[in-house]
Structures are given as structure tokens and as C-alpha cells.
Amino acid sequence: MKQMILLSAVVMLMLVASCNQQPNNFPPDNTNVELTSTNLPIVWIEVDGVTVDRFERIPAHMKIIYNGKGNPNYADTVAHPGQSIDYEGPIALRYRGNSSLNASDKKPYSFRTLEKPLDESSKKKKVEILGLGKDNNWALLAPYSDKSMMRDLLAFELARPWMEYVPQGRYCELFLDGTYYGVYILCEVVSKGKHRLNLAKPGTSGDALTGDYLVEVDYDDDVNYVSKFHPVDSLGNAIKDRFVHFQFKSPELEKMKASQICYITSLIDEMERVMASPQFSDPQTGYRKYIDVTSFIDYQLAMELGHNIDGYRKSGKFYKRRDSGDGRFKMTVWDMNIAYGNCKIRDGWRTDTWIYQSNDLLYAENEDLLVPFWWYRLNSDKAYVEQLKARWAQYRNTSLTEEHVMAVIDSLANELTSCGAEQRNSQAWPRWGEYVWPNYYIARDFNDEIAHLKQWVHDRIAWMDEHLGYRRQ
Fold it and tell me: 319 and 272 in one domain?
């Protein structure tokens, strides 16, 4: 077992190293895919042959052609002059992601829009892109293991009516240095911007010190704080050789004052201490004093509907505003690409279990990152569970009817197929009928993948209905 773990670590180090040393920016299998016209925006990124890096941003130039919904977009700008340029300008580019980077041939990107080409004096520039609110911090998600190319967007759209903020994304087709790279999702990231979470800059004393903060439960690759409370097993026993890691996203650790670090870490400690106490469910002094229960329930239902094996323990983004407003922790959704049955490992494919109860299985499979103990505690409280059931009934009677969910899937599928974008992506990355980590179902083609996704969603909703006591009126 130790040899296998060491081998896995070596392989991961080799993958990470390759992401920082490769000379050709990971081109697709087929670099001769032709795009004449498409319903999706066309994104060109020019790096002039420079190697894209995982950690250091490189200078690049971006141009986006989009002639509006219902109008074709043409790759040949000479034959089709006068097209609408949605955005053109300098950007700072790097790779992003963890498993979505290291385990995928098709790489995702992070980019910052700039006032002038990248150098030490370059300032970030907030811009509107594809109808998304002005900001300077963006992602290009690269659906690869998710062969439907819609799981992230599906999760976002289903959660949007219920949560304070959920990222928006737009399908596009990407060229890098003139080579067609396939279908990407140009996406907002969960950040502090006015059109995102709209977080204020925290001060150093008084009410201003109490907000605003964005924190994430995630990998230990950028650890800012380690919880004093270990994850627990199904019997409530602490798993003492596993830890929960917090990363400060806004402000970032290097920009935080000592008083701010002390405040937010002390508050996390206090919340967790109360969660672990015998009086954790007290309506006045218990967990409700620290968390927006509805927001946590909405996050839980999003993770559970998608049966997201990465849920709770990775990309678990929560934020806190100033106490003078509503200073309780709230949550939002991110990183759903291996959800909705797209995961062979750790029972991710199943429709008949709760993901928040995964720690026994995760630990047995030697997984380092486990679900924080809060979720076990919350779901042991009768009042919380009753509120969870009521919220699920609200979902199911409105935006989460099965008819609506299937209509969202059909709409996303139509975007990808109506002008051949999915077919071009499959030419660049021919993966139908092949296993791509961590696929459970290996579809023959796009239609087969969508049919499987729909059946999985149907089965998952039925199981959740049964276990949350929902009966359609």
C-alpha cells in the first residue's frame, strides 16, 4: 500500500511538473479542426509561443467575436468584416485547477484583464465580457472528463434561484495561437467584485473588522489556517490523522493585517467550538448564531442533488459580511464537473447515498481531504433536517420540477449541437467510447451521454424525494 501511495505521489509530481515545463501548451489530438461559423462566441488567445504556466501569469492578448444571440459568428474575419468584437485587449494568463488540470488533457485557464500588456506596472482593468458584469478576474473552464460539457453550468443554473450569488458562464470556442482547442466555458469566479459577491474591504477595528471575508475549505497546497477540529466518522469519532484546511481568498493572506487574521481565525474557531458542543443546536447560542442556515441548506442540496464527491471538502467557499448587516457565514457553489454521476471512484456514480456521509469511505480509500465535521452535526439536528426537507419541497414545487431540470439540460445541449460546436470539440478531443478519469459511464456519443445524464438525474431526484419526504401535489 505504501508503495502504491508513493507511486501515486510521484505520478502527481510528474504531472504538475509537466504542466510547468511543457513547450507546446498541450494542443488537442487533432490540430486541424476547421471552424467556419458557430452560434457560440469565438475566443482567440495569442501567447506567441510562450509556455503557459500553472503559477506565474504570462502576457497574452485576447479577442472575442460575438454577434449576439441567434446570429452566426465567423472565424474568418477577413471574409466576414464588421463583426462585433465583444472584448479585445491584453490579459495575464495562467493555468488553473487541481485535478481538472493535472488529470485532463484539455487544460483550464485563469486570466486577468489588464489596462496594458503585462509588466510590473500593469494594472488590472474591469471589463464586461459576454454580458457578464464588469470584473478583471475570469476563468476558462475546460470540460473534458465531463463529456456532456454541462455539469458545472447545470449546477449553477439549478442553484441560481435560491442562493445569493452563483457564478455565470458562457460557452465559447477557443483558439490558442491559431489552433482550435475546443469548447470552453468563459466563467465568472467566486470573488469579491461588485457584480459578484460585492464584498467590502475589511478594516482593522470595530464593525469594519468583522467583514467582509471570503474563505475556502480546500487542498493543503495554499494553507492559510488549519482547523482545530478533525473530521469525524459515521459514529462521530474524530479522525485524528486528517485535517481541514482553510484558504483565505478575499483578502488574500499576504494582504491581510494581523488583526484581520486574528479576527477571522478566532471566529472560525468559535463557530467550530460551538458546533462541537453539546448545546450546538440551541436556537440562540448554537450554530444559528454563526451560519445562515438557509444558505448552508441550499449549498447542501446543490451538493447532494449532484452527488458531488468533491462537495463540502474541496472548493467549499463561504463568506462573511460585516456584523452591522448580516454577519453570519453563507455559502455558494463551485466545481461540479465530476458530479451528476460522472465519477467511478468513491461511489460518486451512485444515486442512493448522502455525500456528506462519505468520510468512512474516503478514509478507507486513503483520501486526505474529508468532509468537515459541521455537516454531520447539522444533519443530526432535527430542526435543521426539518428545515432541509421544507426547502427541498420548495425547490421541487418551483424551479426544480423534473420537467424544468430536463428543459435546462436540453437547452444546454442545444447550444452545443445546433451549430456543430460539440462535433468540433469531439474532433479535437476524440474521447467517445473511451474511459477518461474518473468516468463511470462511458458513452458512445453525445446523445448517449445526455440520455445517461437525464436518467441519472431522474433516479437521484426520486431517491431524494423519498428520503426527504417529498410528495408532489
Answer: yes
Please check whether residue 224 is in contact with residue 246, taking contact to mean a CB–CB distance below 8 angstroms.
Answer: yes
What CA–CA distance (Å, rounded) separates 473 from 454?
23
Per DSSP bridges, beta strands 132-135 and 137-141 are unpaired
Are residues 89 and 161 both part of a single domain?
Answer: yes
Tell me whether residue 432 is in a domain.
Answer: no
Residue 436 lies in a domain: no
β-pair type (213-217, 316-320): antiparallel
Residue 14 exposed, middle or buried by CB count within 10 Å (0-12, 13-18, 19+): exposed
Domain count, the chain: 2
Place of cell 427541498: 392
Mark whether 46 and 95 lie in a shared domain. yes
CA dist., res. 181 & res. 197, Å (int) = 31
Nine cell digits for residue 402: 423534473
The answer on 184 and 213 residing in a single domain is no
Q: Alpha-carbon distance 88 to 64, whole Å?
A: 6
Quick check: is 471 in a domain?
no
* pLDDT given at position 18: 40
Instruction: Enter the C-alpha cell of residue 269.
Output: 474557531
Q: Which residues of 174-203 are buried (b: 16+ CB within 10 A; e: fewer)?
A: bbbbebbbbbbbbbbbbbbbeebbebeebe
Among the listed residues 160, 244, 163, 182, the one whose alpha carbon sits nearest the alpha carbon of residue 35:
182
108 is a domain residue = yes
Strand pairing of 37-38 and 73-74?
antiparallel
* The domain boundary residue, chosen from 188, 214, 244: 188
CA 365 from chain centre, in angstroms, equals 24
Decide: 85 and 63 in contact? Cβ < 8 Å.
Answer: yes
The residue segments making up the domain with residue 176 are 2-188
What digits encode the pLDDT tens for the residues 402-451?
999 999 999 999 999 999 999 999 999 999 999 999 999 999 999 999 99
Residue 269: alpha-carbon gap to chain centroid: 26
pLDDT digits (tens, 9 = 90+) for 373-416: 999 999 999 999 999 999 999 999 999 999 999 999 999 999 99
**Same domain, yes or no: 100 and 22:** yes
Phi then psi for 264, rounded to 5 degrees?
Answer: -70, -35
What's the rounded mean pLDDT across residues 330-353? 96
Summarised one tens digit per residue, pLDDT across range 31-70 is: 999 999 999 999 999 999 999 999 999 999 999 999 999 9
Q: What's the rounded Cα separation, in Å, for the pair 157 and 253? A: 31
